[in-house]
Amino acid sequence: MATFSEGDRSKSKVATVLRVTSGNFLEMFDFFLFGFYASYIAKAFFPVANEYASLMLTFVTFGAGFLMRPLGAVILGAYVDRIGRRKGLIVTLTIMATGTILIAFVPGYATIGLFAPFIVLVGRLLQGFSAGVELGGVSVYLAEMSTPGNKGFYVSWQSGSQQVAVMFAAIIGYALNHALVPAEMTDWGWRIPFFIGCAIVPFLFYIRRSLEETEEFLQRKVRPSTQQIFASLVQNWRIVGLGMLLVAMTTISFYTITVYT
After folding, report:
1. Nearest CA-CA partner of 130 in 203, 73, 208, 86
2. If you write DSSP's letter for every residue of 174-185 in order, what string do you get?
3. What DSSP character marks residue 147?
4. Tens-place pLDDT, residues 35-79
């Protein structure tokens, strides 16, 4: 009987890991798409005479999402510490989905003029704000639900889901480039991956709502406020600064390989 109970519990852990990381997969999938299809987005929303300038405007918009990530990490991170991991992950998914829907459905510059790039920028800022806490929120959830001595293994699935998202986006891009002619890709084909991301959202909302709050969070008696979070950042600015430099090094390398090359 004890053996059956342990096996049952193990299956439950696996299912929970998949539910948590599936949302992380979608968020990272949506976040990467903008970089993968930058040349098409440039033509649709930043049609200047110089193609290089148009592409650079697109990459500036892509980079704006990264500027929002620290804000998302601090503001939403403190919010997640107050309301709980489960509710926090649902909030981040909502924000990311909103940003993706804006980018996927907004008409091009030729239709609504300057409103088009502005709406795309808003969508990208929302994506960055959400991504800032999604990575940390998923990692914390996985760490808190892990079995003793296996935190590193459980948390590694957060990074693993990101790599799956990159491969999935690349496979879709490969298929589209072979199925559509360049004119079709430029006109409407680049939107298909964003539509796919939007179509998955309702399913991911369903599975994230089925998550249970972690026992470790429920047992906490002290939950830091946003003011306390900022005070802690200032007090430990050296450690925070070194950590940011390490993350910047890996992030720059990662996006240089996956997006800019």
Report:
1. 73
2. HHHHHHS-HHHH
3. P
4. 888 888 988 998 887 788 888 888 888 888 888 988 898 888 888
Q: What is the pLDDT of residues 141-165, one digit of tens each?
A: 999 998 888 899 999 998 899 889 8
CB contact at 8 A, 121 and 64: yes
Amino acid identity at 39? S
Domains for the chain: give ranges and CATH numbers: 21-220 (1.20.1250.20)
State how far Cα 189 lies from the chain centre.
Answer: 22
Q: Look up residue 91 and give its two tokens.
A: 């909030």
Report the 3 state secondary structure along 241-260: HHHHHHHHHHHHHHHHHHCC
* Backbone dihedral region for residue 84 (phi beyond 0: left; psi -120 to 50: alpha; all else: beta): left
Indicate the pTM of the whole model.
Answer: 0.86
